[in-house]
Amino acid sequence: MLSTAIDKYIYHSITHFHSKLFDYSIRLAYRKVECVNRLADVEHAPIREILRRFGIKKDIEVSLAADLPTFSGLGSSSSFTVGMINSVNAFQGRFVPKTELAKAAIRMERETLRETVGFQDQVIAAYGGLNLVEFSGADKFVVNRVAISKEKMNELEGSLMMFFTGMTRCAGDMEKSKLNNGAPIKDGLKRMLRLVDKAHALLTGNGPLCAFGRLLDATWQEKRSLSPTISNPVIDRMHDLALGAGALGGKLLGAGGGGFMLFFVPQERQAKVRKALGKHIEVPFSINAPGSRVIHS
In CATH, what class is 2-145? Predict the structure, then answer.
């Protein structure tokens, strides 16, 4: 897998709660506020199970804030899990290495929460950076930093544009639809894996980056063939409008069905692409961002 972290974050704040002063012992603030006395009464399943995993049953306050919406194909669910586990460990006075953090998040999502998710989002959220990640089974991975020059990194970042489709979806549901596709998905994934090697060679070699855009598009064509639920008329139209305006390639990020589309566009063509996709919100971003960090403890 070739992947990068971007400079969009979920912020976790965990503090001791003086429950003797109130009529509840646990307070959570996210898109809603929960004030309960028993951990079992917490509705937010990931928070509930992470607190349970670390033996926290009362006298805790958790507040969340995010730069982007959930269910948008940018790994927000796994980023939340990674950040929450990192934050709880810091709250209890422990430092967690990146590998251990990623594996703890994978186990929490796949084993405890029983979510149909992969491994990649947890790894990139824990490690950050621009990486080539090699997987060899559950909980087994090697993270290799991409050896790319500063000039090429800047060119890559300056050529990427991201637009919101206006739709969100549950990644687990999308992954289930792919798994139901049986044998054809395996062939498609093998072809996508070969494209990863080509993209890595482009980033680390001396050739022009324009071919990266065409590889991005080839990856999208393979991905959308994995399941009929991955794309839809809105996504297809965004793709066609962007390429018609000068983008060299583009793909939907995440599991499919909604979220954000990423395009590779030479800088001199970006104004036309921006105009063509004027009905969709563009979100500027930087790549090679750091992974989960404890800001204050």
Answer: alpha beta
